[in-house]
Amino acid sequence: MDLTSYAELAVLLVNSGHALDSLEEARRFLAAAGRERDAARLTRADLAILSELRHELIAVFAAAARQDEQGAVERLNALLTLHPVHPQITRHDGHRWHLHLTEGGRLSGEYAAGAVMGLTALVTGLGVDRLGVCQADPCRRAYLDTSSNRSRRYCSERCASRANVAAYRARRRDAARVPGR
């Protein structure tokens, strides 16, 4: 079982922004994220649970970004209690039998159990510092640092490029202000 893909559910939820404000927006967001099957199953009850979970996951990533390892772990432990994991063998979309993590029969339960367990596995296996918040202003999107040297600082290549260009321009501006150059 690939728990990184479950951890990516957490990132998806954290980065959903206002997409969880309405059922229609959430369905469009899930479909755009390649989760059409989930979009069709989403209910208003799921939406409320996912919205609350999103706020909790944002707090986990924020604690990790502050290098508050204890705080991130305490929040994950609280989420593990709130969203207990029930493994289930399943087969779908032409795939072989495989393990899914679930909590009850609702879509929100599957997302909650998967996201929390995925982050927990990542944190216990690789460390809290693998949870990141984009350093590009004003982005603040979450990401998972799966690089071999723990060097990731941005959520995307676009943000990395934007930050590098801004830093270059700032250096040129500062150099132009130095007298005698």
Automatic annotation (TrEMBL):
Q: Which InterPro entries would you find in this protein's record?
A: ABATE, ABATE_dom_sf, Znf_CGNR
What residue stretches are annotated with the Zinc finger CGNR domain?
Answer: 130-172
Name-wise, this protein is: Putative RNA-binding Zn ribbon-like protein
Organism, scientific name:
Sphaerisporangium rubeum
